Predict the 3D structure of the following.
Amino acid sequence: MVDKSLEATQRPGRRWLWIGLSLVLFIAIVMVLFDTEDTIDVQATSAPPPPQTVTVVTVAPETVQAQVSAFAEVRPRWDAELRSAVTGRITAVHDAALDGAQVERGAPLFSIESAPYQSAVAAAEMEFEEAELVLLRARNNVTVAQRQFDRDDKEPPNDLAVNLPQLRIAEKSVAAAHARLNAAKSELADTEVVAPFSGYVTRRFASLGQTVSPGDALIHLSDNRQFELVAEFSQADWALLDHPISGTVANLSRRSGSTLGQAQVRRGGGFLDQDTRQMRVFLDVTAPDERILAGDFLRVKIPGRQIEDTVTLPESALTRAGYVWLVSDDDHLQRISPKILFRSEGTFTIPAPEGLGPWRVVRTPLASFLPGQRVMPKSVEG
């Protein structure tokens, strides 16, 4: 019993002993840390940090040919909704009239009932023959009357005496009958609908057995042999072109840069677009690359005039704010805000900066640059 009581008395003492030892160890660790921080070796120096290294391209003034470009939609030169010119029932729909068909010029598309128009042609031919017979009789009457006066050695008192008015009426009747015959033949020809140009049938509206009237839509035909583009340029770009531009050959390419052939300027300028206030240039593609399709948006690049005292820089040299950074002879930064003349294939061309060239231009400027900041230039090829 005595031992158990003694052991119960010693337990609180041991607990407090461990707590005390832990507290002493914690205080010792804190003091060591404070002592370590106080003894860190900090050395003061007055030497400035080394200048920042920048890559520069060296450029000199040169004469370049301006390149003006814009995106334009490819449109077929001929794009028509073919409509019926006569009234009748469709008796045949040829394969060339089906949706998606590639059609050659003159290919048959539809046949419309032609019997009424054949009858009209026959009637017009008979009317024409009758008019010619009347004309022959009138000429004969004029000849007989004139000879009678010649035998009597007299002059006819007026045109009516020799039947000249009847002759003129007969001549006009023949002309009118001939015109009606041509009209009847034209209507008969319109019963056979053919393709007026080569292209693709994009949509068919009429079907076999359907009765159509003049003006009813039959098919929509889109040209696939000749295309045109309408490019719009700002007045600043327009001033860079070598005028007159009619006949100038322009290069066509996709956004990716792949070349798709050429187009020829048909006409340009003369008026501003009412909506965009830009100059419009009309181009023809008469021998298109097979990869060119109607509806494509292509880059149109037109060569311009020769411009002196310019420098061409990579696009990376231009900051978002529109600045270009130069490095002076004593390796200090200078900032300029140039006027961009034109852009071409990842580069832009500006008037040569003031002063004597060549100039060292920072290839990839940083947002932290400051005018007058000293740098360490590292030259690279442009």
